[in-house]
Fold this sequence. Notes:
The protein is of the alpha/beta class. The protein is 40% helix and 12% strand.
Amino acid sequence: MKITVVGTGYVGLVTGAIFAIQGNDVICVDLDDAKIEDLKRGKLPIYEPGLEEMVELGVNQGCLYFTTDLKAAAAESELVFIAVGTPQNELGAANLDDLIAAAESVADAIPKGAIVVIKSSVPVGTNAKIAKVIEDRSGRRVDVANNPEFLKEGTAIDDCLNPDRIVLGVRNKRVGDVLQKLYAPLVASAQRPCPVLVMDPESAEMTKYAANCMLALKISFINEVANLCESLGADVERVREGISSDRRIGREFFKPGASSGESCFPKDVRALISQANAVGLEAKMLIAVDDANERQKQVVPRKVFGHFEGDLQGKRIAVWGLAFKPATDDIREAPALTLIEQLIASGAEVHVHDPEAIENVRNVFGDAIVYHNDKYQALKNSQALIVMTDWQEYIGADPSVLRWHMQDPVVFDGRNCLNREWFEFSSFTYYSVGQAPVRFVRDWPKHSVQKPLGIPLTTTAESPMTTVPESPRTDQLNFPVLLPCA
Ligand code: NAD
């Protein structure tokens, strides 16, 4: 099929690449010249594991093209997918300006019989609204369908190739048949059974928002349990095992941490609250989820400020992890941003590391903080390390290596991703989420800490990887006495 995908962000580019490798002729369109020029040169505007290879495959097969000329692309297409952003507006509702602008351009050029498919997450009633925009502009009726996207950044390719379901919101059988035909190869090759759920567009729109709100609810619930655990002396990680082994509850999206989890959740929760208000309803549960998510962003900053008794002036603080979650460069709704703002305001010297999100964060904070490509360089002489994203390369960080680089042995683990037991047997003060902190009473004098064996102390090109002969074995170290936690 001949397909145009409008928007080359996290959803549009993945969608376009997947349709292309399945043998469709796909043109991906964006109004951002720089993004399209980069894509034409084989450079991706976003980081998503596996996407670069998939885009390359589509391009090499002659099935995937990039342009800024939406009208020319739409004029050649049987299907036009719109996957532009729908951020929240100042009132909390979804801002549909980009969607409407894209629909107007499509209306000017779309051939007879072609179908417009909304992939963006949109409020109930948007399908009808966009159909009217197109009809008013073109003077004729065009079929508009809804096909909400459920991918997660970081695992987007796998999510799209092996979806739990495909939702098609259509008004007539012809549109349903065309979209089912498009998805048939994907459904056939998926590793799990994948139901194709055909419904009316309004139900499809609601399905997407309701799914995100449910997932946001799960995360805010376990965050609240974590906060209670901390105050009442329970360990949320044990409690989580206890709850999530119940099949009715499950493990997915049930990990406490420094925020609400996904970058889209807050805006989608607020969009549904706003729609409820518009029809005179008060979505009390969603309001509570939104409040809980906002409050959760303060959990790590509160611990940091508490530890330093509010005095961070001149303190050198390392922050590991800036993206809202691992395996993405997306920083929308990332709790690290809230934390960094507060650290800067309090006069701290902030040194940050992230494997993929540095450039996006540089656009926010400019010269106000120091950026490092090497996580150990970020750590050098710091008075505390704060982990805000559970990137694989942080998990398993060895306290003895951290201690080697740091001035003071203090760690705030905003994702419960480090090995707590290691910190219990080291000279660190270690704060996590939903667990009592580990406090130490006596530090190893820094000069007595040996360089650990086989562990890179630095990984930058300027200062190549260093390993040293002797490793401290934990049973040979003179560990400080641990005090029971306060
Ligand atoms: P994004 O911001 O990464 O990408 C949107 C792209 O659309 C940008 O590149 C922008 O330049 C382009 N654009 C805007 N207006 C345009 C126009 N008129 N013509 C051409 N291009 C235009 O957004 P995203 O994260 O891919 O999200 C897109 C939609 O999908 C949103 O509604 C979002 O809620 C939904 N969604 C996102 C995810 C996710 O994990 N990111 C998952 C499921 C659904």
